[in-house]
Amino acid sequence: MSKVIISSLYDSPEFRMACRQFDQAADAISLPESIRDRTKHPRRCIAVSLPIRRDDGSVTLYEGYRVQHSLSTGPSKGGIRFAPDLCLGEVAALAMWMSWKCALVGLPYGGAKGGVSVAPAQLSRSELERLSRRYMQELIPFIGPDIDVPAPDIGTNEQIMGWMMDTYSNHIGHLIPSIVTGKPLSLGGSQGRREATGAGVAHLVCRYLTDVLKTPPEHATIAIQGFGNVGSEAALALVQNCGAKVIALSDERGGILNPRGIDVARALAYHRYQGTLAGFEGAEPISNDALLTLPCTVLIPAAVQRVITPEIAAKLRCRLLAEAANGPTTYSADKVLEQRDDIEVIPDLLCNAGGVIVSYFEWLQNRANEYWDRDTVLTKLFAQLDRAKDAVEAQKRKFKFSRRLAAQTLGIERVAHAKQARGLFP
Ligand SMILES: NC(=O)C1=CN([C@@H]2O[C@H](COP(=O)(O)OP(=O)(O)OC[C@H]3O[C@@H](n4cnc5c(N)ncnc54)[C@H](O)[C@@H]3O)[C@@H](O)[C@H]2O)C=CC1
Ligand SMILES: O=C(O)CCC(=O)C(=O)O
Question: Between 13-28 and 403-422, two packed helices, what is the crossing angle to 10 degrees?
Answer without folding.
Answer: 80
